[in-house]
Amino acid sequence: MKPTHLGRWWTPVAAAALLLAGVTVAAADAGPADAGTLVASAGCGKTPTLTSGTQTIQSSGQNRSFILRIPANYDNARQYRLVFAFHWYGGTAGDVDSGGTDGYNWSYYGLRRLADSAGNGTIFVAPQGNGNGWANPNGQDVTFVDDMIRRVENDLCVDTAQRFALGFSYGGAMSYALACARATTFRAVAVYSGAAISGCSGGTQPVAYMGIHGISDNIGGGQALRDTFVRNNGCTPQNAPEPAAGSRTHITTTYSGCRAGYPVVWAAFDGGHTPGPIDGGGEGWRSWTPTEVWRFFTGETAPTPQTFRLRGESSGRCLDVNGASSANGTQMIVWDCHTNANQQFTQNGKALQVLGKCLEAPVNASPGTRTRIWDCNGGANQQWNVNDNGTITSVQTGLCLDANGTANSSAVTVSTCTGGANQRWAKA
Q: pTM for the full model?
């Protein structure tokens, strides 16, 4: 993956086109793969003539090409998922297929690796844009997609209710154009850092939609693309939470109230124009984006977080939200261990969550400051390292979670780390 190369399509021309074009999440509706039934393509049962590699096709009077990736041990009696992955401006179909400098692990934005490990149930297509972009003049690129679908499905066995599209940057714009113009053709789309520069013909029908966008991306408008399908899908509008600048985290929100089978998901991350942000900093194939997009496309649910208590070594008592209040600012204490919700924590990345809130110390807290709960926002003051030696340290300050006594109601603060028993905690 070449992040600096991937984002270079943002030019004055593209900017002008855009101007003219105008952690706690809600309960998930049915995933896109839950809707529809198996509908076999014409290629089912046929001996295929297509093979993995570059294919050429005539479309709108032009010679066009795409790379096809057919699973190993292809079975013409099995109906496969069909995924189109669009390159960025200046990128190529070969970059998408090969995974660039990250190789196989980033092939098709990391989805090929996940599909292979899930049983090889997916056929991938990497189309090549004219001029290495997706201007889609007079709908030519949408027609190109129609022609590729026809060619692939006449030869290979595809579940026609399971077509998907994704792409980054200009490729995200093309995926959005398909969401607008081919909502009944595609089951779901994922738009990475996209904008409305490939057009939006139609744009009034529902389609399962996932948007991924950095809070410091120099390409704006991602929220507006998302909100098109919040409306079309009948979802309840909301201001989706976004992580704080400097937190190097992401927050994924599933909108509530959407029509069954037409979810809208928004993943905001602390970063710029990249398809592969990594929580904690950096970018590459170890990003969280492949897993979350794959779950969205396939309808898989994330594993249920395991709950635990945090028992202090010195007191034998548990970290407790005082009075079981979920109000912002409620302070932490130690109390006799029990099984009520105000002692039941889950770990989401580096966040420690309880009662639907996050454990935090105030921003840039000094030693001796009380800890508390607050709405999760991805800030560094809500990030904790749970260390092998039993200490729990603030990512922002490096201070340790500290019980100031052993009796019930003793305050829990952040303090300079000493390694003492009052700073050692065990999951229980």
A: 0.70
